[in-house]
């Protein structure tokens, strides 16, 4: 019997193996690196096996024995988590660890209400919220670092990922209140093409926004890029250029206090689908299923936590003429 090992030590070893770094594993679990190192030492001593090769400035590499041991550790931890389901089903409770991944541009708006609201409704649930870009979230699902992701339908055609769309978010334009375009109710991509654009430079998001221009037969004039939605909004609010977005925060000011204005896009453009992603072969624990049900109840075309009027831009655009008939110019 492995009486001298704890599930916590096994969890720390697994995190170190998945991240290939003591520091990154410690950051993920929110503990000190020394705790991760101590757990690795304890497991290696107990099993009389070397799990990792330590390489200075290059992190950790698994030994052949370490690969096999970590596979078994993952199975052991998964089986341990199933104990919560057995107890929950007999007592009609929702409890246990829940790891929720959220697409970074969405996290500040929707994750607190969904995750913390769920934690308040189910005090026995231990909710961990993790932000990442879309590809990072998919990789975390595959590595069992998160149970479910709140994200867009960007490149979710992989055979091992299940995606359920909950809301459709069409693209629109954001400009500074001092921009002449702020007086317009609607504009087109053709009218925007020669204006300076601020591009959200995240993997897949970048490709989505650029594809809108390609489909319209024009190319944008990119003046600046940022991976941060807050930085992007500040650049727009300070008159550097316009940007495209799919989410409408309830506040219309940037972090430096300057006001932003939303303008609808003429024509029909592919919206981003906001929804849930999870691993197809994953057996969802009851706490995960309960959280997903909460998301289904809270997110729809008519309402998204932290956002205002998610369907408005789409209704205006659909009522307008197709973009190739657009004669209104914003310049």
UniProtKB/TrEMBL annotation:
GO terms for cellular component: protein-DNA complex. The keyword Transcription applies. The keyword Ubl conjugation does not apply. Keywords: DNA-binding, Transcription, Transcription regulation. Pfam families: HTH_1, LysR_substrate. One of its GO terms (molecular function) is DNA binding. InterPro entries: LysR_HTH_N, LysR_subst-bd, WH-like_DNA-bd_sf, WH_DNA-bd_sf. Transmembrane segments: none annotated. Residues 5-63 form the HTH lysR-type domain. SUPFAM superfamilies: Periplasmic binding protein-like II, Winged helix' DNA-binding domain. Belongs to the LysR transcriptional regulatory family. This is LysR family transcriptional regulator.
